[in-house]
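Lab notebook page, bench 4
Experiment: in silico fold of construct C2
Operator: M.H.
Input chain length: 328 residues
Purpose: comparison with the prior construct
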Amino acid sequence: MGNAHLKLLSRRSDVELAGVCDERPERALRMSELHGTRCWTNFQQFLDEASLDVLHICSQSGYHADQAMLAAARGIHVVCEKPLDLDIRKVDALVAFCEKKGVRLASIFQKRMSPAMIAVQEAIASGRMGRIISCGVSVKWWRGHEYYAKDPWKGTWRLDGGAFANQGIHSLDLMVWMAGPVEEVEYAHLETVVHNIEAEDFGIAVVRFESGARGTIEITTCCRPDLATRLEIYGTNGSAAFDDARVTRFGIDGQDLIPTLDDLGALTGGGTEPMAIDLSGHEAQFDDFYSALAEGRAPTVAGREARDSIDLLTKIYAKAFPDIRLGT
């Protein structure tokens, strides 16, 4: 993802690439040569010497908050790949610190930039869909054994988590964005079925939102070939369904609203091949972030916005694995 960020940033006239950092020297050198910029392998030295205005974090999830804190302490704005961190305590500390320092913090949840997603979320927030009754998500993907074997940190509790924390976090984010924060995880069964990893590759959960609505979640990296990434939500006055970020049903008051939408969204990929993804959502988020800096406003998916999905993730893991804490 670091390379993807660099490719998109290199197209921007308002951005100058100041450098790249990777603890693996061969990767740092390859990226610097590819994008014509300097490279570092020591992160703190990178922050001190590169004269950064903005840091894009694309490292292992368990490093995110610590690296963002070091940047924020130097007054550097942060764009962080999902999730903001695995440890909710670090997330809360980071969000509060950035707000205190006046540092802009954004988390990459690119599906929120889909016009179709925005139209449905606004219909829910305005009350047009009535009282939300249910919201369900499913992520039925495949990851080969080589995916986890290539990088030993993948699938670990300390740096990655399992299918819910990595592959499923986008759907958890959309769930709480649409239906609101989760009050309680009523049931969660997570297990490791196929892969040789510490964390789960399959799980099912049932949740109760603060609003009283209920939700169901199924996430796996054991589904070969991959089947779907799906979100369904309905209330007393309307319903909507998405395959990935493409709306397939949207109606209110018995009226089909799909013909009223200018953009139905798209299939963003990632079901089998991790990097076979559409980057238009990332590009839209970068547009929003750099516009936010210029306009002196918060980015659309600011740190506090990104917290709810990590809160849900934490509650699911606590229900399924009471003795395990993410990020440790």
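Observations: DSSP finds ten helices and 13 strands in the chain. The chain has two domains: 2-110, 114-271+303-320.
Next step: discuss at group meeting.
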